[in-house]
Each structure stands twice: as C-alpha cells, then as structure tokens.
Amino acid sequence: MSQKNQIDGIKACVFDAYGTLFDVHSAVGKYREQLGDSADKVSMLWRTKQLEYTWLRSLMQDHADFWQVTQDALDFAFDATQISDPDLREGLMNAYLNLEAYPEVSDALFLLKTRGYKLAILSNGTPDMLDSAVTNSGIADLIDMNLSVEDIGIFKPDPKVYQLAVDKLGVQAHEIIFQSSNAWDAYGASAFGFNVAWINRFGQSKERLPGNPDFEIKTLIELTKILN
C-alpha cells in the first residue's frame, strides 16, 4: 500500500455505493427480530452471493440487473437458512432500497462539495436503486451524478465500468479519486488507472490482485484530509 499523505490535481471524487456509502447490512438490521438467530447468517450470505453472482454473470456473459441479482442472492440465503416467508422477503427487498448511509457520509460529501469537487456514484446498482438510496439517505443534493453499470451491461471490476466515469464526467482517469470499501473494487479501479482510496472500515487484509490503492483509510472523513 502506498504511503502517500495527500494528492493534487483531482477534479472528481467517485464513490462506490454499496458498502461504501450505504450499509448493506442495515436492511437485515430492520428485520433482526423476525429473523432471530439467522439474522447475521442471512445478511452475510445475501451479500456474499450478491457479489459472487455479479462476477459469475459477467464471466458467463449473461447479464441481469442488480435488482434481480439481489433478489436471487436473498433467495439463496433464505434457502440456505431454511426460511420461507414471502412477506419477509418483500420487506427485506424494500429495505434494500432504503439502506442507511454510514454516519460520516453526509458530512464528508458536504465538505468535498463545498471545496468544488465533482461528486459521483459509480455502482453496480440500477438507476432506480441508486436514486432511491441517495434520496432516502438525504444525500441527493450532494451527488452530481449517479452512474450505473446498466449503461454498459456488465458489472465491476470490468474496466468498461470505470471508463464510464471518465466518459460521463468529462475528466481524465488521473483526475479522479475513487473510493470503495470493497477491496476487490478498489484494486480493480487502481488497475484501471484511477487514484484510489480504499475505505477499509473493518480491517480487511489487502488483496493479492492487480492494482494498488494509493490510500487506505477507515472512514470517508479522512478523504477530506487527503485532497488539497
């Protein structure tokens, strides 16, 4: 991992959504009582399979949007934990449209916005999912653009996804700093050519993948200290 302290020449801050801005486990958190002892297992399986299905569908060249992938992953988690409850399934899927933002997100985005940076989300999520998440978390006024992989029909970490941010924002890759708490995404973005801040919220080990994030931080507030 690089030991940089600050960086110059950045025009746009681009953020992953799920796990970076929004707590993917907050959906299950709203139904913890109904799920009982299975809550944590359901939440972890749901997220793990959601990611696995994006990678596998990309390799299989058989794209389905992130809403469908999220449903399929939840169905796997329910099956694995022997849960059959259509109302609970519907509630959890609706909760995924209203995920909670991490506590520092609003303040960090506000500080970056007031300093003149373009702010965008680059996500596997569908446009409707992203619109719902940013609106319900109260950050819609801070985000200039939601960029969805649905524009190209393949999931991260395909380089075409990261190129989407370059094309839509009208800046060069080296003028973007990309933030993700998903290590595989941070490494993928670095391999593409972005400056990258890996938001390592939970003390994960570094990946053995192409790329090398420039910064490793614990919360998005630290990003405001990196940018001059």
Compose a concise summary of this entry:
Helix 3 packs across helix 4 (66-80). 44% of the residues lie in helices and 12% in strands. It has helices spanning 26-29, 32-35, 39-60, 66-80, 86-96, 105-114, 127-136, 159-169, 183-192, 223-226, and strands at residues 12-15, 118-123, 145-148, 176-180, 195-199, 215-217.
Can you put this structure into words, describing what you see?
By secondary structure, the chain is an alpha/beta fold. The chain has two domains: 140 residues, HAD superfamily/HAD-like (Rossmann fold, 3-Layer(aba) Sandwich), CATH 3.40.50; 71 residues, Putative phosphatase, domain 2 (DNA polymerase, domain 1). 44% of the residues lie in helices and 12% in strands. It is built from ten helices and six strands. A six-stranded parallel beta sheet has the order 3-2-1-4-5-6, with helices on both faces. The longest helix has 22 residues. The radius of gyration is 17 Å and the shape is globular. The protein starts with 11 loop residues before the first strand and ends with a helix. 40% of the residues are buried.
